[in-house]
Amino acid sequence: MTLVEAHDTDELRRAVSLGAEVIGINARDLRNLAVDADAFSRLLPNARGIAPLVAESGVRTPADARRYRKEGADALLVGEALSSAADPEAATRGLVRA
Question: Is the CA virtual torsion 74, 78, 81, 85 positive or negative?
Answer without folding.
Answer: positive
